[in-house]
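Batch manifest, entry 17 of 40.
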Amino acid sequence: MDSTRQNKIARLIQKELGDIFLKMTKETRGVLVSVSIVRVSPDLGIAKAYLSVFPSEKGGEIVETLNQNSKSIRFELGNRVRHQLRIIPELRFYIDDSLDYIENIDNLLK
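Output type: structure tokens
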């Protein structure tokens, strides 16, 4: 169970990462990246961001690229939230495949 502080920080990071990825995807045509959920560790040192990528075929390579560039993304995040957070958590990105899972269940039920 997450604390109130963890939830607030997770929402803040989710909002700011969404804005950062919106800027990044404007440069690359045909790819849409959105942040589904962010989970922050109890010590607020690690933030796991689950991303929804469209088209889903490019999801693996985009998440791999983001994990390689996580330090620059963390720096950009730090510039945006430096007045709200004392320590900027380490970022880890994962694919959120819940939409594919839901679509698969709907196809099975039909």
